[in-house]
Structures are given as C-alpha cells and as structure tokens.
Amino acid sequence: MRKTKGAIAPAGTVSRDRRPVIAMVTDAIYPYHCGGKELRYHELASRLAEKADVHVYTMNWWAGSRTRHDGKVTYHALCRPWPLYSGGRRSLAQAVFFAVGCVRLLFCRFDLLEADHMPYLQILTLRLVTWLRRKRLIVTWHEVWGRRYWLQYLGWPGAAAWLMEWLAMRLPDHIIAASPQTAERLHAALGARCEISVAPNGIDLDSVCNAPQVGSEADIAITNRLLSHKRIDMLLHSVALLHADGYPVTCRIIGNGPERNALADLADRLNIADAVDFRHDGFGIAVLEAMACGLPVVTTSATDNLARHLVAKSARGVICDSSARSIADAVKGILTEAGPSSAGDGFGAESWLDDYSWAGTVSEVSAALRL
C-alpha cells in the first residue's frame, strides 16, 4: 500500500467525457477490520475501479496522511478512528462522530454516493449531502434488525435505535440488499414500490479451492465478531456436551471483540480450555468459504440467522435448533459419519456456489449504480 499526502478530494464540475467518480462510505475497512462487510467493500472497490474512479471515505485507521492509495482505490479519512463497540454494544459516540465527519463530503467531488447502512446516523448526513449536491444516494443494507431485535439487543433504548433504522431505510434513492431475505424484510417495511436490488456477498472460488492447508487442524471452527448476541457461548456449551458424550473435539474461535475474555473464562469453567483455540485474525463470508472448501457447515434455525438460507442449499449443510444440545448432536452426527480427520476430504465446491462469484456481485452493484 502506498501512502501519499493530500486532502479530501475537492468538489468540482462533472464532465461527460471522463470516468464516473464513486464515493463509497463505510466506517470500517479491510484489513483493519476483518468482517463480511469489510471484505465486501475491499473486493467491490478494487473491481469497480476498473470502470470508475473509486474513493472510499472512512475513519482514519491508518497512520500518516488523511489520504492514501491502495492500487486504483483512494481512501480518505473523515474523522479519527472511534471504537465501533462500547460495553459489548455498538457505540453511540462512534455513530455520532462518524455522522458528523460525513459532512466533509459536501466538499468532495463525486457523481454518486454509495454507503454502508451501519451505524444509521450517517445516512441522515449523507442524505443531506446528496440532496444539496443533487446526487443519488445508494445504500447497501446487510440485515434488517427490526424493533423486536433492537429491544432484545439494547433494552428500552432499542426503541430509539429501531426508529433510527426505520427512518434511515426511507432515505436512500436506491437500496442494495446483501441477500434476498434482507430484500424481503426491506419490502415488508417499506412497501413493494421501494427501489431495491439484490447483490449478495461473493467469494473468490478459485482462490478458496486452491488455498493450501496451513497450521494445525481443528474439529470445529467458527469465525465471527465476539459479541454477546452472536451466542458463541452456546457453541462452547456444545463442545462441553460433546466432551461429556465421549467426543473430545477441538474448537477454534476466529475473531475478536468485547466478549473474548468472557468466552475464555467460560471455556475455563467448562473445563474445555485446552480444547479451545482463540485466534485474532477473523475473515468474512465464512459460510460460503467453508462450503467452497467442501466442509460441512452447522448453523441454527434462529429467525435472524440469515446464514441458514445458504446452508440449506448445501448437500452437507445441517440446520439445527438454537440450543447447545442440538448443536452438539449435529456435530456428533457429522463426526460419526465422516470421522474427525476426514470431515472435509474428497468434497469439492458445489455448483450453486458459482452464483456467488464477485464478478456477479459487481455486475449487480454496477447496475444499481448505473455504471
């Protein structure tokens, strides 16, 4: 990555004889954060840069100048880096300061603006910016939480968070849903006339299938942000149940987050600490990547777990009830059938995964951006 000095791209007059300029706004970027949306923006930005000038506006995750270049993509810092989470929950302070930082886009040159929907507050700022600049606002929506989920997540303050989500989803000119199920939820909230297209997360199938095996093996692996509502504690209880049933499985937890210490303490209390390996380097699109490697994937039938729709397509996918015992039984069934050392041997990527290539995702996003 090459760093250069410079200020945020200035506003200017758009010429018809030049490449379009896309402003992409997201609060966290790869490789400083390694999640699904970060990987999505990283892959899309580099591919869209083949047909447009791409500028990504984010927080100042890197050292040095507020502007840096990564290949054909230019990154701009809108504000200093604020922690995304506080006390295990999404930080209100981060949302506020990032939304304020987005005012800088009033003075940036772009033909259209695409933004990540989280953490919602910045959508209000971006709507004002694009209205004043007479530009289109396109927002990518990864998941719809809804009032019930927000109340479960935050308690009574969740009502205000749901109101913000409800308002934010009504502001874009166009919404790109990251899954058909998210599009259905958006239509249910906004009505059938709302302009929504679907562009699912993709994978680099060739790279995944040809990646060499490195490091030690684990019987069970999970990759996720370590947050309480992700229920990784339930997986640890499942591992303890498997040990009690005579299956001394090992478990690798890949990712970071505010629940890491609490999960390590829980592993100690369950007497499975020696069988659990915590790794800090997480990555995104884990379900698709695992299935591309031919690995069996276990997930739960929880209503807000959209990964279950992908797992249902796989011949080796297992969907079970959302309980420690159900997960333990599902893992036991896989281990009994294939054996711990051969659970992923001899199975290539399933043909339906071809529908989740990055080329297909770029094509859908380009159509939504009218490129």
How is the secondary structure organized here?
Blueprint: E1 2-3, E2 21-25, H1 36-48, E3 53-59, E4 67-70, E5 73-79, E6 85-86, E7 89-90, H2 92-101, E8 112-116, H3 121-133, E9 136-141, H4 146-154, H5 158-168, E10 174-177, H6 180-190, E11 196-198, H7 205-210, E12 220-223, H8 232-244, E13 251-254, H9 260-269, E14 276-279, H10 286-292, E15 297-300, H11 307-311, E16 317-320, H12 324-338, H13 358-369
Helix pairs in contact: 1-13, 2-3, 4-5, 8-12
Summarize it:
With 371 residues, this protein is of the alpha/beta class. The chain is 36% helix and 18% strand. The chain is built from 13 helices and 16 strands.
Write up this protein.
By secondary structure, the chain is of the alpha/beta class. It folds into two domains: 2-198, Rossmann fold (3-Layer(aba) Sandwich), CATH 3.40.50; 206-352, Rossmann fold, CATH 3.40.50.2000. Helix content is 36%, strand content 18%. The protein has a nine-stranded mixed β-sheet with strand order 1-4-5-3-2-8-9-10-11, sandwiched between helices. Strands 12-13-14 form a three-stranded parallel β-sheet, covered by helices on one side. The two termini are 27 Å apart. Mean pLDDT is 86; it is low at 1-7, 10-14 and 340-347.
CATH class of the largest domain equals Alpha Beta
Which residues form runs of ≥5 with pLDDT under 50? 1-7, 10-14, 340-347
Write down the CATH topology of the largest domain. Answer: Rossmann fold
Helical/strand content category: alpha/beta
Radius of gyration, in Å, reads 21 Å
In the sheet with the most strands, the strands line up as: 1-4-5-3-2-8-9-10-11
